[in-house]
Amino acid sequence: MFNKILIANRGEIACRVMKTARKMGIPTVAIYSDADKHALHVQMADEAIHIGPPPANQSYIVIDKVMEAIRASGAKAVHPGYGFLSENAKFAEALAAEGVAFVGPPVGAIEAMGDKITSKKIAQEAEVSTVPGYMGLIEDADEAVKISNQIGYPVMIKASAGGGGKGMRIAWTDEEAREGFQSSKNEAASSFGDDRIFIEKFVTQPRHIEIQVLCDQHGNGVYLGERECSIQRRNQKVVEEAPSPFLDEETRRAMGEQAVALAKAVGYASAGTVEFIVDGEKNFYFLEMNTRLQVEHPVTELITGVDLVEQMIRVAAGEPLSITQDDVKLTGWAIENRLYAEDPYRNFLPSIGRLTRYRPPLEIAAGPLLANGKWQGDAPAGEIAVRNDTGVFEGGEISMYYDPMIAKLCTWAPTRAEAIEAMRNALDAFEVEGIGHNLPFLAAVMDHPRFTSGNITTAFIAEEYPDGFAGVTPDQKTVERLAAVAAHLKILKEERAAQISGAMANHKRRVDPDWVAFIGKEAVPVHVEHADGGTDVRLADGTTLRVVSDWTLGDTVFSGTVGGAPMIVKTEFIRGGARLRYRGADLKVVVRTPRQAELAALMPEKLPPDTSKLLLCPMPGLIVKVDVEVGQEVQEGQALCTVEAMKMENILRAERKGVVAKVNAGPGDSLAVDDVIMEFE
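-> structure tokens emitted (681 positions)
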């Protein structure tokens, strides 16, 4: 086995690899940029080596710098994680020349499958079903429009060397094809150093389902089931699960066998993923093969018991696979939610800053296990697992230089419904403060009837949230339960105040039992009686909800039962009341006496400032291009400027017809959130 492994990556995937290496007794080496000097992966490693400035193209993806670090460390193996150099054939060649093992596939497989155009040609030759498209290189926007018309709209414009949703656009018209081609080309050049673009037919009502394969250097290969990755935003996966709620065993087997056959055709050895697009009739088409470990690999590990990172290391060391296809059994259900540093209320735009609070839910180990490569049986009924793969910590910084993913929260349970419920509770308990994040949106998806039914496609987010995410409005039952929680918190606070000084200790202040709880703008009259062991909250219709919890003043999470049902609510006392967050709803709650409620109703409502004539920068970023000038008349939907943040280009458009009065920023300017880019008459 290897003397030590250098992880040529950062963040959560570097930490993930280190956990398995440590379990195997293999020392690890981290590399880091200036921005990652205090990062978690640096702290976890046995040794760490600095490789340059924050931008990835000056540090993490500079092969010469990584090779220098490898030589300095003396490591005889390198795990590339995903992204960065993970699918870079030149890097794999450099390692081979140095006599260092690449914990990944052979160079030939990377070259054959890592390039989307080449991989599709090979798949066609191997008689794998592929999506119609133009596999040749496209020189300019005019040719892109011509090819798009020949294929027929809608089309998908993709970067040949792309991944992670970057360099990818869907076009429904000539104008969108022209614009999408240029944006994809720019993003591809910036992210991958390769601006080649190809176009294929966009399959309507598609599901994105991928097969995990595992092959060794001795000609053995297995598939470890599938992952459903259809919940996507801007072609970036957000929620993944295994297995898929859509596939039957026959389709699963057919996809798996094709995936393994394709891997063997290119001499693949390591963990890899063959991605398919599946239509409503269960017809599947090859999209691409990712010659690396996937972001969403934990859900496969949770339903199979196979540690994919360990298998990659053993394969790289020349060991044969210890499992056969007959050993692979899919048990239970696993779901992964990607927690991103992005503001769902601002169209999911990136957010950066310091994590002033970062408290993930308690991790619980459970689920199927393999020992010595052999199946050990089912997990006990009712058991759940919670897993959080992360690369950040409380007090750490979310940098503008890298991908905005904070963590991957996973749950496992014997059934899909139980796994979803476990995820709901885990999301409710997850505390993140200091930056914008998508926890409310993830919670909303977990409760969405279409998701819970399994009736999803890659258009789910676009169809269900066409105007963006505006938060969750709780139903009446939830409002009443939140009112009971608010009343419970209020009475505990009041009783604490009544005993705050020795002078008052002998005359305990009477706490009024009749209140009105305002949940958002909805008023819920309650009668409260508190005694040891709980609080009885009686609603106007006579229903009594008993609240039981060990919550005390200062706790930021309420965990207990309300009306006999479990409930986890994030709590925070704020000026004038409290803030409660539950299942995606973020509510200001005020508990008043009936008289206070009457007086509050007479108070005028403060209106927010009018920004309708301003174009505000929606996230910290760099102005790439300004498309208009002072005095120009613009139409609704017209592109005004392009802002780049976290390696993604965002085109800001006019919300209505108007005339540009002033332009305050130009190409190359760095802006903060809500900086005024331009003003209108």
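The CA atoms of residues 494 and 511 lie 7 Å apart.
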